[in-house]
Specification:
The complex is a heterodimer.
Chain A: H1 9-14, E1 21-24, H2 34-42, E2 48-52, H3 56-63, E3 67-72, H4 84-91, E4 96-99, H5 102-113, E5 118-121, H6 129-132, E6 137-140, E7 148-153, E8 157-167, E9 173-174, H7 183-188, E10 190-200, H8 206-209, E11 215-217, E12 224-227, H9 245-254, H10 258-268, H11 273-287
Parallel strand pairs in A: 1-2, 1-8, 2-3, 3-4, 8-10, 10-12
Antiparallel strand pairs in A: 5-7, 6-7, 8-9, 9-11
Chain B: H1 5-15, E1 24-27, H2 30-41, E2 49-50, E3 55-57, E4 70-73, H3 76-85, E5 88-92, E6 96-97, E7 103-104, E8 107-108, E9 116-117, H4 124-130, E10 133-137, H5 157-163, H6 165-168, E11 176-178, E12 181-184, E13 193-197, H7 203-208, H8 228-238, H9 244-247
Parallel strand pairs in B: 1-5, 5-10, 10-11
Antiparallel strand pairs in B: 2-3, 3-4, 6-7, 8-9, 11-12, 12-13
């Protein structure tokens, strides 16, 4: 019988160390493993290299000074195009950015998942992605075409953090929304993967929720399962919930000045996940 | 009934996809979205469109409205395959764009400490070397149409040529639509050229709003106005809330 991998978000984060390369799943302000990010903020883990299709995960970690280097194609809140905390950290010169094209990112993770040193792509040729990332090399096709393409290095991760709709205790995880994003790739590219989910279910329950193709993440690459209802808040986790636009707007507004941001973190991020949910419930009541 | 500037822009955006056949039209922004949908409802009926998320939609609803018929699944990873496969024509924005068609959406200023950090390169490097990429600029100004961009995200003609045949093989920038004019790169040295001036815009006005020398030939045509059917589709079907008038003011 496979081990029961259930643990708390704090237990998962206690396995991470400063200086690690951490991949964070989701896309923009969609299905981000925010409960795990909040646990990371409660820990003393810092000096991270974060690999992400960036959203508020990047913003929060950058605002807290936990990120040394970001590997990303963008950082956005979707309905608010520019992530204010990421912008501020970059404009203060605190955050090193390795920028790559969205497809380069996917092939970097794919290379890592396949244990390849690189994969060739056309994306990046001619752009400043090539000059801004001095380690980047090209490779010449050994076939008749002889094309010289970008060799995207494997984006091998020390750990991956992802959030899905359902998971079983062994680490199989199911997405129920329209887009898998790249969460399975993040898990496969990582030495350790931690999967939070809206609800832990018995494996027998998967079939009632969706076809086998919704079983995105396989337990063989998962080290921890964290039951975290609302664990993607304030990002979306369709079909369980949409993005909390009012809360996201408050988060972005608070970025405008240090006192407002201190108040925001004091109110929402100074306690544990239960405190966070209680504070969000209060916020929602006030806004109603 | 005369068309507003925004309505002229909607048709100019739509024209970018004329003759494109059965490919994915990827509009970024309000006017390009109206344009792509208008193109599909009129002269380019075979275009594929998404709901802005993971679904290909078979009907053509108003901005913000939910599609009734889904004809396909296009999550981000498959979208990236469509980019590489070339069956796509995107119309992107640009924080900066130069005369060679180099586009920047990443940052203003130096890499280590930008004066303004913007979105990031997104898919622009891949789009531009894989399939047609047009640009939409809702506010034509010397701050956007610049001598030199701070970071090349979308690849222009000079940079593609310098990178060699693998970069030029599928590189194409069909047109740039702004709130003042339609431009393209059909010149011997592949630099920007005025294709048409929108009604009411003077050559002087356009040159003053452009941060590099731009030749406006005498007798350059006017951008065509929408016909009655196009106006009806824009106003009654695609954008009944007139969001277009907020992106491009009259």
């Amino acid at each position: 019988m496979t081990a029961d991998k259930r643990m708390t978000a704090d237990e998962a984060v206690s396995r991470l160390e400063s200086g690690m390369t951490i991949g964070i799943g989701g896309w923009g302000s969609r299905r981000k493993p925010m409960a795990l990010v909040r646990a990371l903020l409660r820990s003393d883990v810092t000096d991270l290299t974060v690999v992400s299709y960036g959203g508020p995960d990047v913003g929060l970690l950058a605002a807290a000074g936990r990120v040394r280097r970001l590997v990303a194609a963008f950082t956005t809140l979707d309905s608010i195009p520019l992530e204010p905390h990421f912008r501020a950290a970059r404009q203060r010169g605190e955050l090193e950015l390795t920028e790559l094209d969205e497809a380069m990112f996917m092939w970097g993770l794919t290379a890592a998942a396949h244990r390849l040193p690189f994969l060739p792509v056309r994306a990046g040729l001619g752009s400043d992605v090539m000059t801004a990332w001095p380690e980047l090399r090209t490779v010449v096709s050994p076939y008749e075409d002889g094309e010289e393409l970008v060799a995207v290095p494997a984006l091998t991760l020390d750990a991956a953090l992802v959030h899905l709709n359902r998971a079983d205790a062994r680490g199989n995880a199911q997405y129920l929304g329209p887009d898998p994003y790249f969460d399975d790739l993040f898990c496969e590219a990582a030495r350790e993967a931690y999967v939070s989910c809206e609800r832990v279910v018995d494996s027998a329950a998967f079939a009632e929720l969706g076809g086998p193709q919704t079983l995105l993440v396989r337990r063989a690459c998962v080290n921890g399962v964290i039951e975290a209802p609302g664990g993607a808040h304030f990002t979306s986790c369709a079909p369980d919930y949409e993005r909390d636009e009012a809360f996201q707007a408050a988060y972005a507004r608070a970025a405008a000045d240090p006192a407002a941001w201190r108040e925001f973190t004091g109110r929402f991020l100074s306690g544990d996940e239960a405190d966070y949910r209680a504070a969000v419930a209060d916020f929602t009541r006030e806004a109603a | 009934m005369s068309a507003t500037r925004a309505e002229v822009c909607a048709v100019a955006c739509a024209e970018a996809w004329r003759g494109d056949g059965e490919i994915l039209a990827s509009p970024i922004g309000v006017l390009p979205t109206i344009g792509a949908r208008l193109a599909r409802l009129t002269f380019s009926p075979d275009l594929l469109l998404t709901d802005g998320e993971a679904l290909l939609i078979a009907d053509t609803p108003a901005l913000g409205a939910k599609a009734a018929v889904v004809e396909g699944w296009l999550p981000f990873r498959r979208h990236l395959a469509m980019v590489s496969g070339g069956r796509r024509h995107v119309m992107m924005g640009a924080s900066q764009l130069d005369r060679h068609g180099n586009q920047n959406i990443s940052r203003i200023g130096a890499a280590a400490r930008p004066a303004r950090q913007l979105l990031g390169v997104r898919g622009a490097p891949g789009n531009t070397v894989n399939h047609p990429t047009s640009y939409w600029i809702p506010r034509h100004s010397p701050r956007v149409l610049v001598e030199r961009v701070d970071m090349v995200c979308g690849v222009g003609h000079d940079r593609a040529a310098a990178a060699g045949p693998p970069a030029t093989r599928f590189h194409r920038i069909p047109r740039v639509v702004t709130d003042l004019a339609v431009l393209d790169f059909a010149t011997p040295d592949r630099t920007m050229r005025v294709r048409s001036l929108h009604p009411g815009v003077t050559a002087e006005e356009l040159c003053a709003a452009t941060g590099f020398p731009l030749d406006v030939p005498a007798g350059v045509p006017r951008t065509r106005a929408p016909n009655a059917e196009e106006l009806r589709l824009i106003r009654d079907v695609l954008d009944p809330d007139a969001l277009r008038e907020r992106e491009v003011r009259a």
